[in-house]
Amino acid sequence: MEYLDKLNSKKDEFINDLSGLIAIPSLRDEKTIQKNAPFGKECRNALDYMLNLAKEDGFAVDDVDGYAGVISYGEGDESVAMLGHLDVVPVDNEWSTNPFELVIKDGVGFGRGILDDKGPTMAAYYALKMLKESKVNINKRIQLILGCDEESGMECMKYYKENRTVPTLGFVPDADFPVIYGEKGILNFNLTGNPQTQIKRLVAGSRPNVVIGYAEVLMEGQAKVELFESYLRSHHLEGQFLEESNFTTYSIKGLSFHGSMPQKGINAALHLLQFVYGAYQDEFAGKLSLLLGNPYGKGLKIDNDGSYMSALTMNLGIIAITPEHTSVTIDVRYPNDITSKFIVNQVKQALLDNDVRLEIKDISDSKPLFVDPQSELVTTCMDVYREVSNDTFSPAKTMGGGTYARVFENMVAYGPEFPTREKNENVGGPHEKNEGFLIDDLLLASSIYAKVLEKLVK
Q1: Which of 11, 179, 202, 285: disulfide with 277, CB 3.0–4.6 Å?
Q2: Which domain covers residue 298, as residue numbers?
Q3: What is the pTM (predicted TM-score) of this model?
């Protein structure tokens, strides 16, 4: 517990450093992209913030042309890396606090990125500080690699791989303990075309990997009040309608959630499609909601239960329907029992079978990650977690989320969420409003990272 004692003595310093990082609204911004800022001004500011902290603490730093940054300690041809990201997903206006201000209530820190992934990245940085201050003898180089585009395609790590040396092994503090040795494949694609529909406008969603939490649809004619209110009651939803001239706008409030677990969210756009189908007998809305409405892909006949990675999931993340054009962006998380080629072929066939005049385009695929659960990396991570946390029950596992681990060989996801903690309904998770995490758990995670680094570099 030596590392945890040292970290607790630096708690105020940790909070101060984390507060400064969360205050930077590091959303990808195409409008402010320039040289050495490939993802916009605020992502560049977040990277500068971390590199400057490291310089002040005496670490070697490397700016990878604004795509990524590297904080290094020690020497050697072999390297152990921690990979964290500084970019965040957009926020809604329903937060109880300012999402870009670290607010601590009852030990819980609130702020966009405190869990995904600024808090864990700061925990990884402090683990590196602990090793340096403790003057631990190491025979490998340790790197904290900081990315700026994890939420929008991981272009940052692709650039890093092309321009820097790939680490020997390592972990990503961007998931759960005890250790994640497998991640589902991530397949994104668009369905586009110009089918006939009565919908005048339905545009919603910000990212493929976020469940649509709020949506509006514009329809011609007076409001179908009784049908709308009945739909809301029967599905336990909140919504409103607004009549203007000869048009009605219907809005539904759903529940945003991480796109890797769409079954835990409430997709407002899907509900509007179902309402439009029932109230207006719109055939296209009905077919689309039938194909996309099941979070396990049953409508497209792509459902599959993996031997290691559990069920395939599917999220409708972005939708844009107008009389001129329809575009729908889908995020599929698939187990390593099937291939992306199989999924694409099934989707094409489902569109044909249901006479839905959309084409599948812009296919992007990230293959599943799988590290042998008996490997030295996984067993070492498990041993340290059990030793420090006293949790000897929770097993190593796989997940549907995608982390930087999938970009490199011999990488796993490792914390910071503890499986033994009870969920607090007032504390949001990754990509949710009121995103929060216990400050003490970040420090505990940091002590685990310091201990496992010590073992991996000897």
Answers
A1: 285
A2: 185-366
A3: 0.79
